[in-house]
Amino acid sequence: MYRMNWRSNSFQLFVLLLPIIHGLASVYAAVLSQEYNSDTMRLELIHRHSPQVMGRPKTQLQRLKELVHSDSVRQLMILHKLRGGHIPRRKAKEVLSSSSSRGSDDAIEVPMHPAADYGIGQYFVAFKVGTPSQKFMLVADTGSDLTWMSCKYHCRSRNCSDRKARRIRHRRVFHANLSSSFKTIPCLTDMCKIELMDLFSLTNCPTPLTPCGYDYRYSDGSTALGFFANETVTVELKEGRKMKLHNVLIGCSESFQGQSFQAADGVMGLGYSKYSFAIKAAEKFGGKFSYCLVDHLSHKNVSNYLTFGSSRSKEALLNNMTYTELVLGMVNSFYAVNMMGISIGGAMLKIPSEVWDVKGAGGTILDSGSSLTFLTEPAYQPVMAALRVSLVKFRKVEMDIGPLEYCFNSTGFEESLVPRLVFHFADGAEFEPPVKSYVISAADGVRCLGFVSVAWPGTSVVGNIMQQNHLWEFDLGLKKLGFAPSSCT
User: Fold this and answer.
1) Nearest alpha-carbon partner for 15 in 169, 172, 193, 199
2) What is the side-by-side order of every strand in the sheet holding 339-344?
3) Rounded CA gap, 449 and 408, in Å?
4) Beta strand pairing status for 304-308 and 108-114?
5) What is the pLDDT of residues 57-115, one digit of tens each?
6) Is 248:138 a contact under the CB 8 Å cutoff?
7) Among 188, 163, 52, 174, which Cα is nearest to 116's?
């Protein structure tokens, strides 16, 4: 899920990304104790159709409409952030060096399931926070930097603040007063006034002990208001063991409303920024994290893991892994890649090189919180034209699903009829997704081309449906992205 934000006095826009993926989620976070050198930290990805997060069953068309709506909102926020938001598009400072990433061979793995899409991502993870720990379901979002959850807190000091905790109508609430490890960030500190500015901290400070607040507002009308704190996160490992990660920056959201938060308890920030959970965990476990997204139409009980460090479960895939450069700190906190072009049926499409220039007005990012794949107009038109040629014998169907331009009656359709699409990277690496990742099922007997147009100049986004059925490894220390086909089971 992409994060697009703007800040106006007391209001700041915070846009969540999550992983990876039908959209990114919640996270089971923790630190691997030094005594368990062979453990892996895994966050289970909860399926979007899982009964843990889904209410009454919805039709495939209803789910796709929700997905397209949330993607459209997210893309607007991303565009605002990259072109005119609070943080200008610029090269950011490094937050994880290659030397620090070699500090440990440990790893952590926690279950991660795809989840229902409500505008901020589609893959959830179980997240345990506090002492004693309390459990939540968060959106895993590579497009977001802050990890936050619904929260209730009563300040014990008479000089702390005159604000009152707001009632939260939500299924789970973090009761901060019950946690002995909960420590607020005072608004008078440099951390609040300077370091957390990029996370949309508020400037008002009525008393020295008032917690550092934030006010996130989304383009769809959703809001999240709260304050920052440091907490302890816990994850359960094999054989019933537990590990703790201390002083994790979290957001205590006392009030939030809107479609974006109908199912999730909050968001796990996996973006490339100093205070994201991805950086906090990766710096302890080899400087890398990975995930594998199951098919978005798979059984509701199918899941996989968000992994920090190296995992024995993926060792068999390493020999088949393809690597390309991971561009960090260039497009805000997003994970960018150097794309060179797209071929269909073995023929390179005529797409201007400027479209892929991450240092210029273009570029491409991977976003686990966006479901569909967004291409800027100079790339979108050639891709759509080339794919439509193979579908001319199928009757075009008009569907009320927003920006999805081309849908057709799929009676008699076979994936072998569609020429293969390949993403080509500047260093020679190639990513060939399965046909079902870009000719997606919309309803019984109806399929659609799963691309959405983005205005030029702009940034293209590879969403989580395109990423599914592949293992993705983000090596932050060596600045490389690895990927390999996988069933993710």
Assistant:
1) 199
2) 347-348, 339-344, 421-425, 430-431
3) 9
4) antiparallel
5) 466 666 666 666 566 656 665 665 565 444 434 444 567 654 444 444 456 676 665 54
6) no
7) 52
Tell me if residue 446 falls in helix, strand or coil. Answer: strand
Please give the torsion angle defined by the CA atoms of residues 16, 454, 480 and 197, in that order, rounded to the nearest 10 degrees.
Answer: -40
- Residues 6 or more apart whose Cβ sits within 8 Å of residue 17: 1, 2, 3, 23, 24, 121, 141, 142, 143, 144, 270, 271, 367, 368, 369, 370
User: For residue 86, how many other CB atoms are within 10 A of its CB?
Assistant: 18
Residue for token pair 């919180």: 369
Question: In the annotation, is 39 catalytic?
Answer: no
- pLDDT tier for residue 388 given thresholds of 50, 70 and 90: very high
Q: Which two tokens stand for residue 353?
A: 């090189």
**What's the angle, vertex CA 149, arms to CA 46 and CA 265, rounded to 5?**
40
Q: What is the pTM of this model?
A: 0.82
Tell me which amino acid residue 207 is.
T
Look up 141 and say whether it is catalytic.
Answer: yes
The two tokens of residue 259 are: 């479609």
* CA distances in angstroms from 228 to 50, 272, 447, listed in the order given: 31, 19, 44
Among the options 39, 106, 117, 141, which is catalytic? 141
Q: Taking Cα atoms as reference points, which of 473, 474, 462, 469 lies closest to residue 71?
A: 462
Taken in order 253, 256, 262, 267, the sign of the CA dihedral is: negative
Structure tokens given for 215: 């006010």
Which tokens sit at 176?
A: 């901060």
Catalytic-role residue among 39, 215, 265, 367: 367
CA–CA gap between residue 441 and residue 450 (Å, rounded): 9
**Token duo for residue 226:** 């709260």
